[in-house]
Amino acid sequence: MTASIQDSVRPASTTTRSGAPLSLDGVTFRYPSRRRAGAGVGPLTLDVPAGEFLCVVGASGSGKSTLLSLLAGFLKPQAGQISLGGEAVRGPHPRLTLVQQEAALFPWLTVAGNVGFGLRGLNREQRQARVADALRQVGLAEYGARRPHELSGGQRQRVALARALAIQPGLLLLDEPFSALDHATRTALADELLALWWQHRVTVVFVTHQLEEALHLGQRVVALRAGQVVLDAPAKSVSLDDLRRTLEDEGP
Ligand code: ADP
Ligand code: MG
């Protein structure tokens, strides 16, 4: 279903690229509206090597989405530094994208229009080629002219993924991207994401509350509790029981 990168005819600008290294140094963020300790994250110090597939797990409210919003530049840390490819992340960046649980697609645009939306500095042909390539990679080559409401939930998430790939990100951020989908679709999409990652070696930070999914997908797993890292280990070295126990220690 997923077109192989070698098979597809693509412009030179879309050859395989690698991800950027991500680094967090003492990153702290607290929501100003909350005085309660724990409403936020940090201090977090974390190095994600270029091309790593990192999964972040944690119970609801543990700070996973806050972390991704910081990485995407949507929130500014009150302390500490985030850098991507050696450059400080200071705000939203055209080559940084976040895929969320509900694909935030523009309903009035076609699938191709949505995928091409964030592309800047390209002429019409380059843009069309980039969009077609991204859609082919997620198995939706024939769907460019459809509207989002004509797609299944799984297909909409594929479009969101295509939109993210189209901008050729150094870092791909995914916030529980498959959790609203049925089990079979979720598994299929997870495996397609892995295949795409193998091809592109983009750096991935994938957030999920599903521990099996994290261990299946990630090379490395980080567990968050109340905004703090409570486990950081290669996925191969962690069992599902370990991970469950670490997160269950949470208390009320
Ligand atoms: P997760 O994604 O792991 O469920 P979040 O990052 O959404 O967790 O939330 C972490 C903590 O920050 C929670 O205590 C949550 O209630 C709080 N929080 C999240 N968003 C906001 C917000 N916009 N304003 C105030 N507090 C928030
Ligand atoms: Mg969340």
Describe the structure.
The protein has helices at residues 64-71, 111-116, 124-137, 153-166, 183-200, 211-217, 240-248, and strands at 22-30, 40-48, 53-57, 79-84, 87-88, 96-99, 171-175, 203-207, 220-225, 228-234. With 252 residues, it is an alpha/beta fold. It folds into 2 domains: 1-9 and 18-96 and 209-252, P-loop containing nucleotide triphosphate hydrolases (Rossmann fold); 101-169, no CATH class. Helix 5 (183-200) links the parallel strand 7 (171-175) and strand 8 (203-207). Helix 3 crosses helix 4. It is globular. The structure holds adenosine-5'-diphosphate (ADP) and magnesium ion (MG). Magnesium ion binds next to helix 1. It holds the Pfam family ABC_tran.
Tell me the major beta sheet. 6 strands, mixed
What is the assigned CATH homologous superfamily of the largest domain?
P-loop containing nucleotide triphosphate hydrolases
**What is the quaternary state of this protein?**
single chain
CATH hierarchy class name of the largest domain:
Alpha Beta
Number of domains: 2
Bound molecules: adenosine-5'-diphosphate, magnesium ion
User: What is the overall number of helices?
Assistant: 7
Radius of gyration (Å): 18 Å
CATH architecture of the largest domain: 3-Layer(aba) Sandwich
Mean pLDDT: 88
Number of strands: 10
Provide the spatial order of strands within the biggest beta sheet: 6-7-8-3-9-10
Q: Low-confidence spans: pLDDT under 50, at least 5 residues?
A: 1-16
What general form does the structure show?
globular
H/E topology pattern: EEEHEEEHHHEHEHEEH
In helices, the fraction of residues equals: 25-40%
| CATH fold label of the largest domain | Rossmann fold
